[in-house]
Write a structure and sequence with these properties.
CATH architecture: Alpha-Beta Barrel
CATH class: Alpha Beta
Number of helices: 12
Distance between the termini: 63 Å
Shape: globular
Structural class: alpha/beta
Number of domains: 1
CATH topology: TIM Barrel
Radius of gyration: 22 Å
Order of helices and strands: HEHEHEHEHEEHEEHEHEEHHHEH
Largest sheet: 9 strands, parallel
Number of strands: 12
Length: 360
């Protein structure tokens, strides 16, 4: 099976963009059956370049993650399996990597992982790994370049480093304003941001992961394409030249949207917040808005240099496919229009040349 980094390079050489999907292991047997059916539907609707399968908080779904990863491969999809340091001993990592190798799964997302459920602070497992950098170094040392390794990137800063800085974002630097979160909590305006000095340390750490052998970066969610654009520029400025893949979270339910953005301390543009609030009680209208927003952000991301579009599907297919189809149709129409204009310009030029020759 090919490595994702090679597939991305081939697409870039051909001037083609692409989509990829992320899924998580369901909690029930019926949920698993439903998800496998979605794999097939989504593959047939628009073939993804690859599909992520998450590891589960605290390593809680590691066996199911592996099972679903192998099911993806058997169905002709390119799996990109998450592997975390949380509640995972070194021997478990060794076993997981060997199982992937035995089954020709060549793509891994190396992550620190979230704390186990009910535990606020992340702690390393005895005999395990301290962070994603350790995991990347270990995989490279043990397996050379067999695996394509992706790592996480945080355009707004890691949630652990985003702090309350007052109530006035105009006091922030220009770069801080591209990633700050502004909220109204019980009538009190609050501004949260990863300060520039801390953000630089995050970029330094990301550079270490890439220097240690990471082949690609998949970003945390965001709802402002300019935030991704600023992060991409910051990566290049730091000498990080691997593909930076934007992770796109879908808006499908107001409650889920608010919960996720609050947990991750995500910047939410005022226009997006107002639209979600206005449609919160109208499920059909909110989902339609989610598709429109996803299409808009997708076009903006491709315009600022994104290599492709990575969708956090939430294990649902309709919204993801609606966005992917509209973006593909829009871009096909745009190419057709450009080709027509080019042909028309050439024809007009030829007509002028013929006219000039006749005058002679």
């Amino acid at each position: 099976m090919p490595k994702i980094c090679d597939l991305i390079a081939e697409k870039a050489k051909a001037g083609e963009d692409w989509v990829s999907y992320e899924f998580f292991p369901p909690r029930t047997e019926q949920g698993v059956k439903n998800l496998v059916a979605r794999f097939e539907r989504m593959k047939n609707a628009r073939q993804p370049l690859f599909c992520d399968m998450t590891w589960g908080a605290g390593g809680s779904t590691s066996e199911l993650t592996m099972d679903l990863t192998l099911k993806m491969k058997a169905m002709g999809l390119e799996p990109n399996m998450h592997l975390t340091c949380t509640n995972v001993e070194r021997k478990d990592v060794i076993k997981a990597l060997q199982t992937c190798k035995d089954n020709d799964v060549r793509n891994i997302v190396a992550l620190r992982g979230d704390p186990p459920h009910g535990q606020e602070k992340w702690e390393a497992t005895e005999g395990g790994f301290e962070c994603a950098l350790d995991l990347v170094k270990f995989i490279r040392r043990e397996h050379g370049d067999y695996f394509c390794l992706s790592v996480a990137g945080y355009p707004e800063g890691h949630p652990d480093t985003i702090v309350h800085v007052g109530d006035d974002e105009t006091k922030l630097s220009a770069s801080e304003r591209t990633r700050c979160r502004v909220t109204d909590e019980d009538g009190q305006r609050k501004v949260y941001v990863c300060p520039d000095a801390t953000f630089k340390l995050e970029m330094d750490y990301l550079k270490k992961k890439v220097d240690a052998g990471a082949d690609a970066i998949i970003t945390q969610m965001f709802f402002d394409a300019n935030t991704y654009g600023a992060f991409l520029k910051a990566c290049r400025k730091h000498g990080i030249n691997v593909p930076v893949i934007p992770g796109i979270m879908l808006v499908q339910a107001a409650g889920g949207f608010r919960k996720m953005t609050a947990m991750c301390k995500t910047r939410v543009p005022a226009a997006v917040k107002e639209s979600v609030d206005a449609k919160a009680d109208n499920d059909v209208a909110l989902k339609a808005y989610g598709v429109d927003l996803g299409v808009q952000i997708s076009h903006e991301l491709l315009a600022v240099g994104a290599p492709g579009l990575h969708f956090y599907t939430l294990n649902l297919d309709k919204t993801t496919l609606a966005i992917a189809k509209r973006v593909a149709d829009d871009r096909a129409s745009s190419r057709t229009a450009r080709d027509w204009l080019k042909a028309a310009a050439l024809a007009a030029g030829a007509a002028v040349l013929v006219a000039l020759l006749r005058r002679k």
